[in-house]
Amino acid sequence: MLTAADLHDDDRAVAVGEVSWLLSGSARYMRVQGQPGRAEPLLRRALELNEGPPGPTIPTLPSIWSNLAGVLVDLGRSAEALPLAERAQAITDRRRELS
User: Fold this and answer.
1) Which is it for the CA torsion 73, 79, 84, 87, positive or negative?
2) Count of domains for the chain
3) 28, 21, 82, 20: which is closest to 48 by C-alpha?
4) How many alpha carbons fall within 13 Å on the CB side of residue 60?
5) Can you tell me the mean pLDDT for 26-47?
């Protein structure tokens, strides 16, 4: 899955969105299957793809941050998870203010 994410076409925003969606969905599956260690790199790659242009306007971005925070909690890394959960909430709050 990570190799496929490296093969996306930078000129096609749709491809980036699709790859990010697949990575995030695969990570959720890994987490449900009790494999948060395998979910973490998938979510980190999805974030890398989404943090580029157009940035934090991507609708799924807060859920990816939140899911990564949950994975880190599952891995016993709560201190690392808190800023990620806060970032997800900040993006969501900012969107509400703008709408």
Assistant:
1) positive
2) 1
3) 20
4) 19
5) 96
CB 69 within 8 A of CB 44: no
Q: What is the distance, to the nearest Å, from the Cα of residue 34 to the centroid of all Cα atoms in its chain?
A: 18
Q: What CATH number does the domain containing 84 carry? A: 1.25.40.10
For residue 86, the enclosing domain spans 2-98
CA 46 to centroid of chain Cα atoms: 5
Residue 9 is given by DSSP the state -
- pTM metric for this prediction: 0.80
Q: Which pLDDT belongs to residue 66? A: 96
Tell me the one-letter amino acid at 43.
Answer: L
